[in-house]
Amino acid sequence: MKHRLYLPPPLRSGQTLTLDRDRAHYLTRVLRLRRGAEIECFDGGGRAWRARIGDPGPRATTLTLGELLADVPAPEPALHLVQGLLKGTAMDQVVQKATELGATDLWPVLAERSNVPEAHDRLARKQQHWQRIIENAAEQCGALHLPCLHPVRTLADWLQAPPAAALILLDPEAPVLPLALPRQPLVVLVGPEGGWSEPERRAARAAGARSYGLGARILRGETAPLAVLAALRHGWGWP
User: Fold this and answer.
1) What pTM value is reported for the model?
2) How far apart are CA 129 and CA 123, in angstroms?
3) Cα angle 191-193-197, degrees, rounded to a multiple of 5
């Protein structure tokens, strides 16, 4: 069963579902699957089922869940990415790749140097768009858990109540990130294209963040968060 499909919970064995138009189109027109074909469905919370296609159609396809294939706990330790909003498709790339790299929580924040529109309705649409990117990335990479996508807020608001975890502020002027850090809940704060402002750095440090960098090269806004996530996961042995 090489094809995987995310379906929102609650799900159970024996349940027959009628898929929405997008998912139906994906199975029958993109993958060209037919009646009786088997796929894996997962709920984003650690559980996966064998599923069989019933009545196929580009607008409505039925799917029956069979045996439970997996039921695994949430990944540990938690790995949070606080990302200053990036312009264009760069933010999409970060959301996609952070999902593949095992981030457990994604916190998009408006930073002083975020060059993006701040209209509430636009940000709400972006939130829905990023959620779908997360689902697609999890389908592709084999993840059973979806990272939690938190609402957009300012960095100042986020610093009022950070999660219970060690905080790392990515700063190109700071010492290089150690190859191996203790396996404990971590938060990585990565700025937008122009980096964090000095007041933002001071505020993060006042909240307990330790500053680390990634060496002499200046990485693009969409590259830096992926480099640090990969480095942390590698130091942990890719749990």
Assistant:
1) 0.94
2) 10
3) 50
